[in-house]
Amino acid sequence: MKPSTNTNPERTSIIGRETELTLVEQLIKANSLVTIIGPPGVGKTRLVSELAHARLGPAETTKDPELVLAGELAVLDASDLDHNQLAELVDNALNARPTLKIITTASQPLELASEYVFALKPLSADAAAELFEQRASGLKTTAHLPELLAELDHLPREIELAASKTDLMTPAEILKSLDRRFEALESRRRGQAPDILRSSIQPLVSALDPATMHVLSQVTVFVNGFDLEAAHAVLHSEKRTPQILSELVRRSLLIKEVDTIGESRFYSLKSVQYYLSQTRPIPPETRENHAHHYAESSKPLLGSLNQTNGSRHAARLILERGNLEAAFDYSFDSQPGRAAQIAAALDAISRLEPERSLRRLNACLAKTEISLTARADILARIADHYIDSSDFGAAMDALERAWQLDPLDEQKAWIKLRMANAHRLRGEVMAAIEAHGVVRALAESNKLKRLNWAHEANAWVDLGDFEQARSCLRELQFIPESDDLRRESEIHRRLVYVHFYLGNRQEQRRHAELALKAAEEIGDLRLKAICLQGLADAELSAKNYEAAVHAYRAALETHRILGNRTFEAMLLGNLAGALHRLDERREARKHYQESLALHRSGGTKAWENVVLFALGTLEFEEENLGDARAHFTAALALATELGIESDAAGYLLSLSWVDLMEGRFASASKHAAEAAARFERLGTSDFGWKVVSLATVSVAEYLRGLPANLKGVIAEIEGRPEDSQTVMVTLLNEWMHQRPAVSNPFTVSSLHARMVYRLVQRLPTTRPDTTPPPRDAELVVGPDCEWFRCADESVDLRRRKSIKLILKHLVELHASKPGVGADAHALFDIGWPGQEIEPEDAARRVYWAIRTLRKNGLDELILTSDDGYLIDSKIRIEVGDEW
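Given the sequence above, the corresponding structure tokens read:
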């Protein structure tokens, strides 16, 4: 069946409409009339042209609609026809010829009995980008293109108009110019009116009755859509609001869709909003209603985020983000308290844009009208942002300011708990434990009490006091769980960490599964990904490395869906760690490097230094010692910059192992001793890391040929449960006693243990001989030092009794106490026994005697020290019989 049409064939390809074309082809087979409706510029004309000339055609073209309808299949573009005239024309044609099939465009349904209405929607984001890039002849960059396309509502006509400007402007510049929308998007196309946007909207709006026009102008207050509840609240003076909204949808001046939580949502087109803003500005009372509604509606949503099905409430907040931001801006000057409340709601959903949220919170903080309670809450939220970005100093400053506001006890307890967390992340474990004690005294809710005990157990584990950690767990058991599933999930995640160090793998996995279950009940995809990571960590610690890799990959894919680059970077590092332990080093190195690049681009320095360490251990195992040293040195610098002393001490210890591998035994001793001193200062002396550091010092001293004994070090770990520290000390002790290293040292999932195992495999199997090779004597003395010979020159002292006696004493000291000197007064008594003169004169005589010896060849052999005079202990002295 050859169609007839009033459209012309297009010279450009149609983009992003394959599904719609196929659907219309199917619909016309089952229906006599298919009416394609949609907002101005959505592409109705382009769609029917493609149908007529490519999919159903080639068509016979005529500009007379009546002649088009005279065929068997009519494809009609009725954009220039009056709606009523079109309806009458189509109805008459169908009545006259029952076999006729018609596809036509219209601004609204024709309301005919045989009609199937097909609503053409804007393009998808991908199709919109493809269309823009194909039509943009001068495009040099796609930066800010997604924002531009969203501002254009993904409408093909507006996209093509914007693309025509790229010979002069970038997408960012075009976006900025849209504050004068109609002028910015004037058409340059031959045969098309320059103000095509205005001219396509004007007749549709002009046809509205006053009540409908009033509602349309008011709904432009909404940003990125609204639901029926919001429409009733903001437009409460309009009793017919639902019916009017339905009419606006029918006329394609509003778009109705089903949102992500399964409810109807309405969107007004930005070009329509711009058109109305020039003629019918939004009344102040409408803006006030809008701000009040979203401030009030955000309260219950914010309070429900941590309950069962919390993800639904989060999704609602995310949908209303644009409206919340508009309400914040409107309220900021007139009602700062309300603005602070809205800022809190936005902060709960804006963690993917932390800088923007932080600016908003700081702006609220500058308002003096905000209550002390709200101010303390804002400061605590600001601190959370700083903790997330590892800026613990700034976090502590914000929390101290919040504490000084002296809020209610429960709020103070939450502030102090954040302080404890910041202290622990900075390596200040004792300060964290003290803060947890303050929380215990202030906390009122079971939720806070449970969370505090879990975090305190975490801190005691960090300190190495496992008994205190177990005591915290016992206290935790007696406090009922709260209905705050997010906090309960956090508690279980803390306990995963605690049980890891307590060596209870079964409890570790159980709490990981409980954390995941709570996250699934909330329905929070991000939290679920974090809990999947915790489960993967549990598998890793149980040495179920393949299961760990599977769980890490599942968590990684979830974070990629969420677009969270920080957690993606963390998961890549963890995945690399699991692969590392499976000795899949090539893939592990690849993921470590990907993780490192993401952390560096995101500025998450605390995690960057962790990945640097892991990458350093891999290079160490591969014996790429230069790369290993570079990674450990960079990690040490970052940890020092961030003030994470425990990490810095660990990296010094790692550098000492690189030193040992390279034969730099003195440097190894120095690095390990400094690590031990730092661990001592941190109060972790009984946790094992200081012990490992001291064991490394002993190995380095042993290799230097100096006295070294590991007995005291071994005594400190006796009776302790086997962990990575005891494994490392045992490995070093086995090497020093020349016993074979154990075949499987990885009783825990420890990269440190792997390094030490590789180290003892590469160190010398026997203690190096540090005895210097025999050499000719630098000084030969006769019996009783009656003469001496140096540099082949002999000197007779038989007639120089005092000098002979002084030299004899220095030679004896060299043999019995090398490095110890004799002062001038002692040498005077030896050289001139029984004589008593002034001390100054005595010193001058000794000086004269030493000067004489030096002038006779002993200048470089006789030294002056704090003790007095001595012969260099490095000099070899021999007693000769012959002159």
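The chain is about 65% helix and 5% strand. Try to locate this feature in the token string yourself.
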